[in-house]
Amino acid sequence: MGNKKNVTFDDIAKYTHFSKTTISRYFNNPDSLTLENQEIISEALVKLNYKENKVARILANGKSEFIGIIVPNLHLHYYSEMLNQILSTYETFGYKFLVFIGNENEKTERQYIQELLAYKIEGLIILSHTIPSLELSTLPIPIVTIEREDQYVNSVNTDNYMGGVQATSLLIKHKCDVLVHINSHTPENIPSYGRIRGFLDTCQQSHVDHHIIYKDFGSNYEIMRKYMEEAVEELIFRFPGLKKGVFLSNDTFANTFLNLLFRKYKTIPDDYLIVGFDNSPVSQEAVVPISTVGQQIDKIAFEAVSLLVEQMNERKKRKPVLSPEPVHKVVTPVLLRRETTERRE
Prior knowledge:
Elements: H1 9-16, H2 20-28, H3 35-48, H4 54-61, E1 66-71, H5 77-87, H6 90-93, E2 96-101, H7 106-118, E3 123-126, H8 133-136, E4 143-146, E5 154-158, H9 160-173, E6 178-183, H10 193-206, E7 210-214, H11 221-238, E8 244-248, H12 251-265, E9 272-278, H13 282-285, E10 291-294, H14 297-315, E11 328-331, E12 334-336, H15 339-342
Parallel strand pairs: 1-2, 1-3, 3-4, 4-5, 5-11, 6-7, 6-8, 8-9, 9-10
Antiparallel strand pairs: 10-12
């Protein structure tokens, strides 16, 4: 059998008795046609078995229906789950995604951005921390960031301070002798610094003995596990016999901490209570389900894509009205009590 002939705009025009200009308007500016004419053309496409040439459409109107995404890594479960939730918005918004992993390399990420712009992306979602928001704001497309420095760009973040308060208050409620927060060094202009601030303020207000262990956990699992082993040994050495409430800055850290305790003691010792942060799937799938501060990742992802699409649609108007100031949305976290704290009650 021979190949079927591709249906062209000329074929559709002849079938409907419209001009090729009218057919082109149907694809590129449908609102310029009456509903009746839109329905006539739509029915013709079905009867002619028309298959849209996406590449030709991009060349014609410069709109790719692609959004770029840059994430710092995927070894932290938070990023992989956030990516999963962002990709799932296709059914709602109809945009497809091109994804790059930056690995915290500023030069590489700049190259990725130029590559994405060459693919005619219409907007960009950035979760990595390397490029300042001032520089991002100069890009010729809308930008939305998630959980990173965002002074000059639109963003969607968790209320990290509230999350820090929630996690710390839970450990205080369980009457721990000492509270410990394990985190990387975090600049104060990064939203997740709120977790540190919430921990410190809550401990000080409750007059609880508290400490922060900072480690450079790196960008891969092997480095992270090495430094987490050091943190476990430090807790054993510094706080023998004390009931320790340990608040870790994300669920990947919390799960690794939990696994190290299991390997050492074959169980979770009674003097350890553990709370993570983000509610990525690993917190529920851990050998002992981990209490955590849920960031509502699905809601953050949806809000980020929704905000970006809103900005992209505005720019498509003949006379766009762009906000003079960046839009910053904040999603409330939800405390989830699981067995790493509640098993002792």
